[in-house]
Design goal:
558 residues; alpha/beta; Domain 2, N(10)-formyltetrahydrofolate synthetase; Formyltetrahydrofolate synthetase, domain 3; 12-stranded mixed β-sheet; 4-stranded mixed β-sheet; 20 helices; 25 strands
């Protein structure tokens, strides 16, 4: 059986001029800042003008823990948005921008797939409107100004051993994780140890995705703690006088990007923090703008619900005062079989017992999302090799968990293949059964917040952290940061910190390796296990096969 590739389908898209897509949402052409014919930014003036409108209903799409079999969370997000429009609802899609790191590494792009895609796919997976480049530049401007301040006399008395602001680039490059800078003599500054993170792990990325407007953006940038003095007094970005110039670099990047689906429905693609090392949600400004323009807003949160959904609820919704009306958990028969112990090469053969054995991973995600007071439906993202018996096994298991699983064929059939899910989402959202609340209060201690997530979401027995880490958390509480939520950085492949431990493990521990203060973003990053904030490329990176064809098309990107 042969299928068109995602990129073939995307190239055949019958795109409409972006002004027509904006017109669907009532955005005047004068408030769309075009980047070519098929993408545009929405002006801050227009966003300011619609703030008194009522909000539509917010739908979260999340998933089980990712497997090499693929789950299709972004594909389902796009498909559901198209499906809601198909059944007569005014729906807007909100997803994140793609990072070059995974595009040239192993994960691939982030524009959906099959007949449920956002286009222009190639541009979105490369430079798009330049937002990530602006974030990288703003972040590294601050890095340069810190070192420059130290070079020219260090009037703030920064302790060079306590500079906590690293550099970033939007690429996987393990060689830059831990480096020494300023070698080569007096004219090059004072040598010190530092390193690079990937741009999507930058606090500047998190700030852009949580800021309400440019004033809020500049205040948050100013709040970044970049270093400490010898007596451990914090030095802020505003002390370095970098916040104004950083805001200038980010002024266009702050405006949400409007594009379209294959079915010419509107989609905001804005921001891109990873969910395994950052908070994993698209920007607040894109989501809140969409809520003013549509009856339904469908958004995704990165990786499995233990990471993306937890951070969406506990960080993004808390910070932006959002109240989701329903959640969709994406699962596949193939992933259930992998969780049940089947090798990737054998996924094409029917194995109902393995499906049943793998379902507890899905069951735990259902229970976790419900624990936030949000009603849940499961989307079974269909693959042609799925058998009726396997699909029924998933449906029966989900019914036992007090939810419904709906087979979705949007990858092959677009919106026509996801109507049933769209109708169920409307039913849940209109029922008024959502009673959303984060799983921990602001005034809980920071270490207790970490324990709450580890025990309630990951089902761990305990959290292991050195005294130095516990003391650091207490010091931040004393400094006034105790009300911050925590952003867990851990492997996406398991509820535990062991990427090979599939299913629904219990009895494990969560080792905390490091904690970082993101004072501007407004959360504490908790780095667990072996997770890296600067990924490396795989043995055979995708970049090896990406090229321009004789016809001038990009090949191998997706």
């Amino acid at each position: 059986m042969s299928f068109k590739s995602d990129i073939q389908i995307a190239r055949e898209a019958q795109k409409k001029p972006i002004m027509e897509i904006g017109d669907k949402l009532g955005i005047p052409a004068a408030h769309l800042l075009p980047y070519g014919h098929d993408k545009a930014k929405v002006s801050q003036d227009f966003i300011n003008s619609i703030q008194d409108r009522p909000d539509g209903k917010l739908i979260l799409v999340t998933a089980i823990n990712p497997t090499p079999a693929g789950e299709g969370k972004t594909t389902t997000t796009v498909g559901l948005g198209d499906g809601l429009n198909r059944i007569g609802k005014k729906a807007v899609i909100c997803i994140r921008e793609a990072s070059l790191g995974p595009n040239f590494g192993m994960k691939g792009g982030a524009a959906g797939g099959g007949y449920a895609q956002v286009v222009p796919m190639e541009e979105m997976n490369l430079h798009f409107t330049g937002d990530f480049h602006a974030i990288t530049s703003a972040h590294n401007l601050l890095s340069a100004m810190i070192d420059n301040h130290i070079y020219w006399g260090n009037s703030l008395q920064i302790d060079e051993r306590r500079v906590v602001w690293r550099r970033v680039m939007d690429m996987n490059d393990r060689a830059l994780r831990d480096i020494v800078t300023s070698l080569g003599g007096v004219s090059n500054g004072f040598p010190r140890q530092t390193g690079f993170d990937i741009t999507v792990a930058s606090e500047v990325m998190a700030i852009l995705c949580l800021a309400k407007n440019l004033d809020d953006l500049q205040k948050r940038l100013g709040d970044i703690v970049v270093a400490y003095t010898r007596d451990k007094t914090p030095i802020y970005c505003r002390d370095i006088k970098a916040d104004g110039a950083m805001t200038v670099l980010l002024k266009d990047a702050m405006q949400p990007n409007l594009v379209q689906t294959l079915e010419n429905n509107p989609a905001f693609v804005h921001g891109g923090p990873f969910a395994n090392i950052a908070h994993g949600c698209n920007s607040v400004i894109a989501t809140t703008t969409a809520l003013k323009l549509g009856d339904y807003v469908v958004t995704e949160a990165g990786f499995g619900a233990d990471l993306g959904a937890e951070k969406f609820f506990d960080i993004k919704c808390r910070k932006a005062n959002l109240k989701p009306a329903a959640a969709v958990i994406v699962a596949t028969v193939r992933a259930m079989k992998m969780n049940g112990g089947v090798a990737k090469a054998d996924l094409g053969s029917e194995n109902v017992d393995a499906v049943k054995k793998g379902c507890p991973n899905l069951g735990r995600h259902i229970a976790n999302v419900k624990s936030f007071g949000v009603p849940v439906v499961v989307a079974i993202n269909h693959f042609y090799s799925d058998t009726d018996a396997e699909v029924e096994a998933v449906k029966a298991y989900v019914a036992q968990q007090g939810a419904e699983a709906i087979l979705c064929k949007h990858w092959a059939n677009g919106s026509a293949g996801i109507e049933d899910l769209a109708k169920k989402v409307v039913q849940l959202a209109e029922s008024g059964s959502a009673h959303f609340a984060p799983i921990y209060p602001d005034d809980m201690g920071l270490f207790q917040k970490i324990e709450t997530i580890a025990k309630r979401i990951y089902h761990a027995d305990a959290v292991i952290a050195d005294k130095s880490i516990r003391d650091q958390l207490k010091a931040w509480e004393a400094a006034g940061y105790g009300h911050f939520p925590v952003c867990m950085a851990k492997t996406q492949y398991s509820f535990s910190t062991d990427p090979n431990l599939r299913g629904a493990p219990t009895g494990h521990t969560v080792p905390v390796r490091e904690v970082r203060l993101s004072a501007g973003a407004g959360f504490i990053v908790v780095i667990c296990g072996e997770i890296m904030t600067m990924p490396g490329l795989p043995k055979a990176p995708a970049a090896e096969t990406i090229r321009i064809s004789d016809e001038g098309f990009v090949e191998g990107l997706f």
